[in-house]
Amino acid sequence: MKTLKLLFVTACVFLLSCNKSNEVEVMPCCPTCSILFQPYDSVSYQEAQRLAQTFGDQLSSLLGDINVREVSVLPVKLLTNQQLNSTNTRYRAEKILKYQNDIAKDMIKDEHFDVIIGLTSKDISTSLHNIDDYGIQGLSYIGKNNCVVSTFRIKNKKDVWKLVAHEFCHGYFYTQMRHCPADDPTCIMRDGHGKPNWKKRTKICNKCLGRQ
């Protein structure tokens, strides 16, 4: 399978998070990908399947040229104390990503998946804005095909697929898909600026798609 190296290039966290750069480059032409979802704890397999289906259906319309070859869901796993922060109050997102890297190596050696996406309802955090334990909605390694999202801070669960799309684009498209340089309020790649409102974010704008 495509190697999922956990070299930290930059944190991409939405809402109280994400990548700080606004640079955008033209997306690669007609990419094809397979996506693997890993649900944790109280996110049921059925819930993950429904989200995976919604996300797969939306992704092609969002990105146009992308071809989603397959979207699969792994059995539910439990996060452990090894992924907790120092005060045992939140799960560290980067530790979850390392865990997912190990899952990918152990469970899908003979399969090909381009991106692994973790799903949790637990509160997650990372070090950001000079704060050691900063609460976030999601974390991606730019272009490293590994991301995790948390529903803990999302008020409307119907918007979870948008968060997944946001982190997926950070993780899959290398340096191309950072935060929206136009700061378009309807763009899924817009920096959240500390606000958890996904309602108006319904598309990926032409600037992010490299069409302007």
Task: Give a quick summary of the entry.
The protein has three helices and nine strands, in the order ββαββαβββββα. With 212 residues, the chain is α/β, with parallel strands linked by helices. 43% of the residues are buried.
General description of the model:
By secondary structure, this protein is α/β, with parallel strands linked by helices. It has a single domain (11-172), classed as Collagenase (Catalytic Domain), CATH 3.40.390. It has 3 helices and 9 strands; from the N terminus they run ββαββαβββββα. The chain has helices at 45-63, 93-107, 160-172; strands at residues 11-12, 32-39, 67-73, 91-92, 115-120, 124-128, 131-136, 138-141, 146-150. The chain has a 6-stranded mixed β-sheet, with helices on both faces. A 3-stranded mixed β-sheet has the order 4-6-7. Helix 1 crosses helix 3. The chain is globular. The model is unreliable at 1-29 (pLDDT under 50).
Topology:
Layout: E1 11-12, E2 32-39, H1 45-63, E3 67-73, E4 91-92, H2 93-107, E5 115-120, E6 124-128, E7 131-136, E8 138-141, E9 146-150, H3 160-172
Parallel strand pairs: 2-3, 2-5, 4-6, 5-9
Antiparallel strand pairs: 1-8, 6-7, 8-9
Helix pairs in contact: 1-3
